[in-house]
Design brief:
With 121 residues, the chain is an all-alpha fold. It has one domain (6-120): Up-down Bundle (de novo design (two linked rop proteins)). Helices cover 84% and strands 0% of the residues. It has helices at 6-28, 33-53, 58-84, 90-120. Helix 1 packs antiparallel against helix 4 and helix 3 runs antiparallel to helix 4 (90-120). The longest helix has 31 residues, at 90-120. It comes from Endomicrobium proavitum. This is Four helix bundle protein.
Amino acid sequence: MPKENILLDKSLQFAGRIVKLYKYLITTHKENIISKQIIRSGTSIGANINEGNYGSSRADFIAKMQIAQKETAETEYWIRLLHLSKYINEKEYEGLLKDCLDIKNLLTASLKTAKNINKLQ
């Protein structure tokens, strides 16, 4: 049985929510600009985390986690803009933002640990 990876699991669940949000935005609001941006950044988070788990070195792992962290920051921006533009309601905004920030915090902790291990070696 594979080892549980909370960060990967959370990012995959988040990506699923982002895909649903994308479908909602393009079908209900006919919004094509922000929706394309958020689906790219929001699904890229988990893809980079997954790729980092198969990195060829600790430095490769760190690089992929840093990309995932940047994508999380970008996704956070798009979530805030969608709320400000009234494309998503308060409840959806709060849920998406919480999930995004949780992933960002986990990435920050993971990067800190990986970098500290690098310093010890």
